[in-house]
Amino acid sequence: MFVKMMNDRAKELGLQDTNFKNCHGLDEANHYSTAYDMAIMAKELVKHTKIFEFTSIYEDYLRKGTDRSFWLVNTNKLVRFYPGVDGLKTGYTSEAGFCITATANINDMRIITVVMGEPDSDTRNKDVSSVFDYVYAQYGLQKIVDTETVLEEVNVEKGKVESIGIVAKEEVNDLYNKNDGTGNFTYDVEIDNLKAPLSKGDVVGKLTLKEDNNVIRTIDLTVKEDVKKANIFELYLRYLKQIFN
Residue 235 pLDDT more than 80? Predict the structure, then answer.
């Protein structure tokens, strides 16, 4: 049942070259994946940031404080020896060789690197480190839109608050080559007429992102926080306030 769930999720992620036959990862007929598919899985995993509380640990006791405690060292040595690396998973089987799906976060730019079929763990770590060295030397990340910055303040009909901040539902960044410099980005905001109640996550408009005046992406907008509907008494007091002001 669990293996079926794994394969169903792989299909949801659009993985075309992955098929699970077990959940432990050991060699088995028709059990396979690719570096690309592993990177997509890792991209989905790192959305759950709590995972780094575990994958970033290099060494620690398991069952600490009991008579069954033992010392465990992370097989991902890069967690200790490459600044910024905080995960994710190593592996080895006779058919797959030495593999690793590694991720690093330096200057708010997260990179995921996958290598497979390496002859030993030292070569595996060296190749991943070389990729990180190259990417961080050649590329930078420009934040264009985040999910916290209020883009506009908009009136809310019949809301407990008269207006609410509008934010993007997702963060947008631009990966640029440091030799070329950053792009020139602008955006237009289109917001619906807002009427309470509203919940954070509700789509209330669109942001059209442009680079050099060319549309490159459209992003959903939402309210910064929930807006409850005002009761009749609150609406009456607001009406009186407007009259006497």
Answer: no
DSSP-based three-state secondary structure for 16? coil
Of the residues 84, 108, 141, the one at which a domain ends: 141
Question: What pLDDT is recorded for position 97?
Answer: 96
User: Over the stretch 34-46, which tens digit does the pLDDT of each residue have?
Assistant: 999 999 999 999 9
Q: Which domain holds residue 223?
A: 146-244
Q: How far apart are CA 121 and CA 29, in angstroms?
A: 25
Q: Quote the pLDDT of residue 237.
A: 73
Q: Is 6 inside any structural domain?
A: no
Number of domains in the chain: 2
Give the chain's mean pLDDT: 93
Q: Flag whether 72 is in a domain.
A: yes
Rounded Cα distance, 105 and 122, in Å: 22
Identify the domain boundary among 97, 117, 141. Answer: 141
HEC sequence for 30-90: CCECCHHHHHHHHHHHCCCHHHHHHHCCCEEEECCCCCCCEEEECCCCHHHHCCCEEEEEE
Tokens of 30: 């028709």
Whether the predicted model's global pTM rises above the 0.90 cut: no
Are 228 and 129 found together in one domain? no
